Amino acid sequence: MKKTLIYLVGFTLLLLLFWLSLDIGILQLQSSVFSLIGKHSVDATTVWQVRFPRALGAVIIGAGLGVAGAVAQGIFRNPLAEPTLIGLSSGATLGTIALISSGASVYGTRSNIGAAVLAAALTALLVQWIAPGKGFGFLLTGIAVSAIFTSFAGLLISMSPKPSIQSITFWNFGSLTLLNNATVGMIAPYIEVGIIICFLVSRRLDIYSLGESSSHYLGVNPKRLRLYAIIGLAFLIGASVSAVGTIAFIGLLVPHIVRLLIGPAHRKVLSMSALVGAIVLLLADLLARTLFQPNEIPLGLLTSLLGAPALIVLLRIKRASWVSHD
Q1: Which of 166, 200, 214, 306 sits 20 to 30 Å CA-CA off 154?
Q2: Cβ pair 243, 92 in contact under 8 A
């Protein structure tokens, strides 16, 4: 009953935030959102061509980041594992920028998304290969690789003669500003595939949490499970980063909140993480573009400002149960 109520409250809050995202902005609407359906006025264009893809993109990407964080923490058995920290986001960023700076693609194309997905997968495999050990050894290796790839991406941006890539400033802080209906339509299938893959491995993650040796005897192949999980993470993070850049702390914070609400079972954690991730990112984007109008706060900067203190509080509450055991 408690979990049903949590889901009901969550969906209600999500719908409310979605409606507010369509209704609130720099341009004040002269009509209600629902009266603009099928219309071709300035208000209708503002809602359906500008605000709607941004709100829908926040829901889709937020859900993907929430699921990615939960899977990353489960597959690496580390409460601090998060796509940004373990290198996937920086790898996807580098892959995207490298393709754009070479002139082989531009922002918002399928090849751009494909490059980000491939780069994210290769980065995760690289970190897993060179990490000196599991747990925090893997995490520290991911942080180092992330720093290196972020530096390379910065060099490519600063050295590229293409003004288009230098004008895309959201790579480090994240922004939904450039989202449109076409871009959302292109990234949605990738994120959907990533979420499906993650749900397919969710039950085995429960067994894997007992340790590699125990999971092997219980019929779970750890190497194969990690490979499937990495593929799912690559789809989720690659597609998200290619469209909106790096948004920190969503994947790290959301799964911890969810476990406090409904417990540790991965299938339930993934579904609730998708819902909470969508709510958090939609709320953050709404605040980012309305708090200091007409100026807009970089979305990743806002999520870091809100997420870091919240994570500190959660760590103090649950620090005993979140200690990593290799």
Answers
A1: 306
A2: no
In a domain, 284, yes or no: no
Closest by Cα among 180, 232, 237 to 57: 180
Residue type, 307: G
CATH number at residue 190: 1.10.3470.10
Q: Are 82 and 293 in contact (CB under 8 A)?
A: no
- Amino acid identity for residue 145 in this structure: V
Q: Give me 36's structure tokens.
A: 């603009």
- Whether 137 is covered by a domain: the verdict is yes
Question: Is the model's pLDDT at 2 over the cut of 80?
Answer: no
Q: What is the pLDDT of residues 89-124, one digit of tens each?
A: 889 989 988 888 887 777 778 898 999 999 999 998
Among candidate residues 204, 220, 233, 203, the one with its CA nearest the CA of residue 128:
233
Task: Tell me which residue of 299, 125, 319, 91 sits closest to 228, measured CA to CA.
Answer: 125
Q: Has residue 270 been placed in a domain?
A: no
- Our count of domains for the chain comes to 1
Amino acid at 22: L
Q: Does residue 142 lie in a domain region?
A: yes
Is pLDDT at 308 greater than 70 in this prediction?
yes
Give residue 283's pLDDT. 94
Q: What is the pTM assigned to this prediction?
A: 0.89
46 is written with which tokens?
A: 């503002």
The residue length of the chain stands at 326
